[in-house]
Design brief:
alpha/beta, 504 residues, six-stranded mixed β-sheet
């Protein structure tokens, strides 16, 4: 099916103000039917606010949205959905304990006779089967959604959009939690949607994916659209330059620190079915990278070390002394900080302030005789947040209102104030923009320069090679390779990640 060439979406002069913040400033963009438009920008550039305008969650102060020839001053969620606009968010809006079919039809159920209270499950199952087959998915409609991986759950969101006859699908960081195979499946489905004349807004910090999958790119900065251009006429370097307003000379500003004594020693760590004889040392001043494919056991290793999960046997030493870690508090007391992959669910309390989140690990430091010294707490939080150039209206701002990059800075602030000397970063730059990534890398440089030992788990090989002094590669719960910074190549890492010791 050839794609239509008409303009399906036209946004003109959208402006939105919040107290003290101009979130959108005269934003304009357009998308043709059958076109994939990349939306790029640093955290805080206005991308999330734009999404909420298009889906009806926010009302613009001025400007207009023209969709399929009809112009709206504002949209509400029901009107947007009825018009054919759907959004697949980074945090999926699905119910894990319900079936695939029930999730696809959530809010759009078929009833026997049309108006009765009895669900027409036979017809819904048949339609769900048809939608799944249309995307070449061998998933049964009766499968419990929670039993599926994130990639397949995302496909169920696409089925929901297809059911509602969506003609514009907004994808917000769609590959941030996907394996390479799952991402390839998503790109295949995007190509299918494009052939059917569906327009897609593809919002991603993974600029290589934007380059490969998008027909055009619109770049946002400080709430405004700064440029729009055809992808065939551009490059990743050009996108970055427009995003940050300058050319980033060094994506990975690695600074090598002096390696001193061993601060963490893990010996023969075993966990039935998960970890097999995992042993390694981490030195003060060292950045130790963990590489491997999804499910290799990297996160499981760190969760065992920090008491989030138990393990069957093995020993852990901190600064040469054995420690017993049975729960997270034990690792905190031992000076180990674990910055989890999922910062929103496991690293922050979104409804609490920046000051509360930044100080909550060691809040007793700011109390006396059972009373909390709020001024002392706020001053400590402000000091460390200022050092990291946190963008926020104040220490009382709820962290749920911050961009992803700034949320990550609050997580780091929390552990800096805990006086930890061992830092474990699980996917430290997932979901944050290229400018914020560089700031995180510089913070890692500062930590090791001050004598901390740092572990980073990275799914992007370029990142782990760019920032680590030494790389350990895992496969099926075991360490299968160790590479110095100088000898590491993507080929060597991939061989070890696949269970082979070297290329043959």
């Amino acid at each position: 099916m050839s794609t239509e060439n008409k303009i399906l979406l036209k946004v003109e002069g959208l402006t939105k103000r919040f107290p003290g913040v101009l979130a959108l400033d005269n934003v304009s963009l357009q998308a043709h039917a059958g076109e994939v438009v990349g939306i790029c920008g640093e955290n805080g550039a206005g991308k999330s606010t734009l999404i909420k305008m298009l889906t009806g969650a926010y009302t613009p102060d001025s400007g207009s949205i023209t969709f399929d020839g009809k112009t709206y001053k504002s949209l509400d969620p029901r009107t947007a959905m009825a018009a054919g606009i759907a959004c697949i968010y980074q945090e999926l809006n699905l119910i894990p304990h319900m079936t695939v079919m029930e999730n696809i039809f959530l809010g759009r159920e078929y009833f026997i006779g049309g108006k009765s209270d009895i669900l027409d499950r036979a017809r819904m199952n048949a339609k769900a089967k048809e939608l799944l087959a249309d995307l070449d998915l061998s998933i049964k409609p009766s499968t419990r959604l929670g039993n599926l991986g994130v990639g397949h759950q995302q496909m169920i969101e696409i089925c929901r959009a297809m059911l509602s006859n969506a003609r514009l699908i907004i994808m917000d960081e769609p590959t941030s939690s996907l394996s390479e195979k799952e991402a390839e499946d998503l790109f295949r489905v995007i190509a299918q949607m494009k052939e059917r004349g569906v327009a897609i807004l593809f919002i991603s910090h993974r600029l290589d994916e934007v380059r490969m999958n998008c027909d055009s790119v619109t770049v946002m900065r400080d709430g405004a659209t700064v440029s729009s251009f055809a992808m065939k006429d551009s490059s990743v370097a050009k996108i970055i330059q427009h995003m940050v307003g300058r050319e980033i000379q060094n994506k990975y500003p690695k600074e090598v620190a002096e390696h001193k004594n061993v601060v963490l020693s893990v010996k023969h760590l075993e966990s039935k079915g998960l970890l097999h004889d995992v042993s390694f040392d981490l030195k003060a001043g060292e950045v130790l990278g963990f590489a491997g494919l999804v499910g290799a056991g990297r996160t499981e290793t760190m969760r065992a070390i920090t008491g989030a999960d138990g393990f069957d046997s093995g020993t852990i030493e901190v600064n040469g002394k054995p420690v017993k870690i049975r729960e997270p508090l034990d690792s905190i007391n031992a000076g180990i900080a674990f910055l989890t992959e999922n910062r929103k669910e496991q690293g922050l309390i979104l409804i609490q302030s920046v000051a509360f989140n930044a100080t909550m690990v060691k809040m007793e430091k700011y109390s006396s005789s059972g009373w909390l010294n709020v001024n002392k707490l706020k001053k400590a939080a402000k000091r460390v947040c200022d050092d990291m150039r946190l963008k926020t209206a104040g220490m009382e701002t709820h962290v749920g209102k911050l961009s992803g990059g700034n949320q990550q800075k609050v997580v780091i602030a929390k552990w800096l104030l805990s006086n930890a000397k061992i830092f474990i970063f699980d996917e430290p730059t997932r979901g944050i923009d290229v400018g914020a990534k560089v700031e995180v890398y510089k913070l890692i440089n500062e930590l090791v320069a001050n004598g901390a030992g740092v572990i980073i788990i990275c799914s992007e090989m370029e990142e782990v090679m760019g920032m680590a002094d030494r790389i350990l590669v895992m496969h099926e719960g075991a360490i299968t390779g160790e590479l110095s910074r100088e000898e590491a190549t993507q080929e060597k890492i991939m061989y070890a990640a696949s269970g082979f010791s070297q290329a043959s």
